[in-house]
Amino acid sequence: MVHILTVIFYQPLLNLLIFLYNVIPGHDMGLAIIAITVIIKLVLYPLSIQSLRAQKAMTDLQPKISEIKKQYKDQKEEQAKQLMNLYKQEKINPLSSCLPLLIQLPFLFAIYQVFRTGLSNGSLALLYSFVYHPATINTIAFGFLNLAKPQFVLALLAGAAQFWQGKMLFAKRPKIKTADSKDEDMTAIMNKQMTYMMPIVTVVIGMSLPSGLTLYWLIFTLGTVAQQLIAFRHKKKPEVEVVTNG
After folding, report:
1. CA–CA separation, 187 and 55 (whole Å)
2. ∠ Cα 160 20 23 (to 5°)
């Protein structure tokens, strides 16, 4: 299994990164990382857009879901039926936000391994015969940034981008007023916690990893922000008011 993942994911990504490093003027690894990140985002674009739209749709639907669960809390079968009717009415598959992410996981693990071990001098044995094998790899990007060492500022930027991405995903959720609903349900609270916790985790992890990985995550997150802008552009919905029988 490990060998299959290496051949299908790790080896092609490693070769693509070194190829970009070879052809980019000045052999700048920072530019190569930005280029490979853009390529990965473009390849995964259809899956990412589908996943983002599904996540946003489920987030927007949480007030209605909570209301159904509250209304039919003692009628589990009817609750499940009403939820399925809601998903059908809104044309939403609850699993559609998870499956694309699962498909992307091998790419993410492979690119992590590429940046963690593949950039060390002498660790390029898996290069294809037609990809030039550089004698050494210059890890200094843009003339000043050492990608082989952690960079605090880069970690902060990655955390800020993560916060922006999370804030955008959970922002402006439609307000659904009911006769006895609370201002915030548990899902909303968890969403807020994730919005603030994920950037902190990103900064902490980024401060301990080679900054090549942090640069990749920064560009990847900014790409996700751009995709969210595209995915949510035509998804604005007016405020909805629902009145239940008290």
Report:
1. 13
2. 130
